[in-house]
Design a protein that fits this description.
Elements (H helix, E strand, L loop, with lengths): L1 H9 L6 E4 L4 H9 L4 E4 L4 H31 L10 H13 L6 E4 L6 H10 L8 E5 L8 H6 E2 L11 E2 L1 H4 L4 E5 L6 H13 L1 E3 L6 E3 L3 E6 L3 H6 L5 H7 L2 E4 L10 H16 L5 E2 L1 H9 L5 H15 L4 E2 L27 H19 L4 H8 L3 H10 L6
Parallel strand pairs: 1-2, 3-10, 3-11, 4-7, 7-10, 12-13
Antiparallel strand pairs: 5-6, 8-9
Helix pairs in contact: 11-13, 14-15, 15-16
Amino acid sequence: MEILRHVKKERPDIPVVMMTAYGTINQAVEALKEGALDYVVKPFNVDELKIIVAQGLEKKRLKQENIHLKKALREKYSFKNIVGKSNKMREIFSLVEKVADIDSTVLITGESGTGKEMAARAIHSLSRRHEKRFVSINCGAVPEGLIESELFGHMKGSFTGALANKAGMFEVAEGGTIFLDEIGEMPPASQVKLLRTLQDKRVRRVGGTEEITVDARIIAASNQDLNKGIEEGKFREDLFYRLNVISFEMPPLRKKKEDMPLLVSHFLKKYCDKMGRKIKRIAPEVINIFESYSWPGNVRELENIIERIVAIEERGIITKESLPEGLFSSRKKHETDYLFEPGFNLSSHLDEISKNYIQHARKAAGGNLKETASLLGISYRTLRYLVDKYSLKSS
């Protein structure tokens, strides 16, 4: 028993089988409590002993595999996936580490494509909740009539199509983290229920009568100005203060151009490894073009472009010709060096800028309008209106 206790203290990963000719039930119970895998009394069957040893080895293998997978998962959503060396990014890294292991709500703001969800996942992966689930829901992508069902769950028969009881995201994220993306798009009625959940730590399923206690840390994100939403009556002020306990902004790519070479190198390695390609060099003119572009889709747009380049480039070097045709050709149109010339019209100029941004974002999103709207930081409905206005349906 002393050897068992010593082994489990020094090497808890080693399975231990106890064997004796003088066993009692009390000794067996004590051995199992001290961490023994099994307790064998002589005389024993050799085949049975082989099975016990095999089970012990398999248990150890599975445990080691589980540790390896958890480590890989933590690395995947650690700072290795949030690239940057600028002062602003260093500040964010420091803040993420400080707030990871507390349960206060976090509000992450910033333009679409700046990496708000990656920051939320980093907070989760560094927290004591990392072994539990990280559940993400885009509040702007769920139809208004279904948002409460998604968040809080529903009971069978509570509405048309509710064919069975369903747990909501808060229940699914029990013990972990729930990420509420685009919180500014949440309907007012749902905001009231979310506020109540934040206050009471309880949810009630749609159509249900019982309240269910939930324990999930809340991280919210928005690419909208929530203060403006409060002024316009679209977002509850009391909910804002509940969410805005700890807040920070993910900077747009155009405001951290010093991170550009590092980001390009990171995405290049990622997609070269993924596709089995070799890119030996990037022409300096490409970095110059990247740094002079305004990046309306931010880091997500950059990643999409690098992925496209790696997929189609066969020369082993990235040059100006490797870039998507026309993507950067109109960047001078966003500058002011030719403004106020005879015939200048502000409305037409702004329309032209809007059209260019929509077309560029659409290319970066591979033609997907919902992704395009996300890149531009506008709603899908607004994008549809602008597409019709500028007759861009076939472009």
